[in-house]
User: What shape does this take?
Amino acid sequence: MKQFFSIYDIPSLSEAVHTALTCKANPFQNEHLGKHKVLGLVFLNPSLRTRMSTQKAAMNLGMEVMVMNMTSDGWALETKDGVIMNGDTAEHIREAAAVMGQYCDILGLRSFPGLQDVEVDYREELFHKFAQYCGKPVVSLETATRHPLQSFTDLITLIEQGDFEYDTDTKQYSPQKNKPKVVLTWAPHVKSLPQAVPNSFAEWMVQAEKEGLIDFVITHPEGYALKEEFTQGATVLTNQKEALQEADFVYVKNWSSYENYGQITCTDASWMLTLEHLKVTNQAKVMHCLPVRRDLVIASEVLDSAHSIVIEEAGNRVWAAQAVLQEMLKNK
Ligand code: CP
Assistant: This one.
C-alpha cells in the first residue's frame, strides 16, 4: 500500500477489518516490522485521537515517531505553484514535503478544508502534492473531503459490536442473523464543520451494504445532502424519526452544507440525539467520531448511557492505524 487516502486503497473491507482485529488481539505480533523505521505525523490542524492512536499503532509495530505541528512549530507553507513568495508563506510544500521524506519512512498528513471554495477543497491538492513531493507512503490523517482512518475504525467497531462471523476460507464477514441497520444522522452545531467524516462514513457504509454486511440510511435536514460521489444512491430521509426506526447503530455527526458550501442553514435543536429519539430504535448503539459537544450534538443522557460506544470506538482507532501502517511496512 503506497497511500491510504480513501476506501479505494483497501482491496477488501472484510480482510482489512480482520487484520485490524488480529492486531487488537495480539498488538506486538509484528513489532519487528517497524524496527529502525520512522513515522512522521504532520498536522496542519488540531488532533487528539488521530495523533495519539496513530502514534501508539506505530509504537506497537516497533517504529519511532516524529510529530510536526506545522501551525505552531513549522514555517508557513506555500502550496500554490507559480507564485512569487513575497507574502506570509516562508517554505514551499515542494521542499517541505521532500525534506520530510528524507527523514521518514512513512508520513501522515492532516489538513482540514477552508470551507470557502468547494472546487479548491474537493480537489484535495494539498494531500496529493504532499504525497508526490515526499516520495514516501502517505496516510491521510483526515483531509478536506475524507477521514479514512476514522471510517475504517467505524467499520471495525460495527463488526466487533455486531453479530458477525468471519469465514477463513472466503475471508469474508457475514451477519449471523439479520443485517444490522446503520443510520447516519446529522446533528446541530454552532460552528461550520467539514463534510469529511460523513462523506467518508457514507462511502465505507455504502460499500459495506453492497457486500451484504449492513443496511444503511442517511438522515439530514433539507439542504444538507452530501456529494453524490460519497452516498452513491444510499437511502436518504429528511424525517429523522422515520430514519431511526429499528436502527441498530446510530452514527451522529454534524456537517456544514455542501449545496450552500460551508454554510450553516439549519439550527433546529430537535435534531440533537436524545434518549427520546432512541425509543424507536432497536436499543441502538450510538457512535460519534469525537470530539463531541455535549447537549448540542448528543445529549449527555445518551453519552452517559449504555447506548454509547464512543469510547470503544475511539479505542479502535489504534487498530485501524496499525493495520494500515503494517500493510505499508510489509510492502516497502
Ligand atoms: N476523530 C478524530 O479524528 O479525532 P481528533 O480530531 O481528535 O484526531
Observations:
- The first strand starts at residue 3 and ends at 4.
- Residues 3-146+316-330 form a domain with the Rossmann fold fold (CATH 3.40.50.1370).
- The radius of gyration is 20 Å.
- The chain has a mean pLDDT of 97.
